[in-house]
Fold this protein.
Amino acid sequence: MEMDKGLIDKLLGDYQKPEDLIGENGLLKQLTKAVIERALQAELTTHLGYEKHSPEGHHSGKSPRRPTELARSS
């Protein structure tokens, strides 16, 4: 996959010092978090067989908590 140079330019548009890229809240940390979250969501979707919040999954038995448990915990 080839990287979109325009996207890279846009991401680095506000870059002024190394901390902007590798600091505590730097671009690298934000990108890493976003990529990992997206990959985990895709993995979960593949595992369950439906998208998050999809009606297909409503009361499918694959939910970690059943409706009766939700009613008791409220």
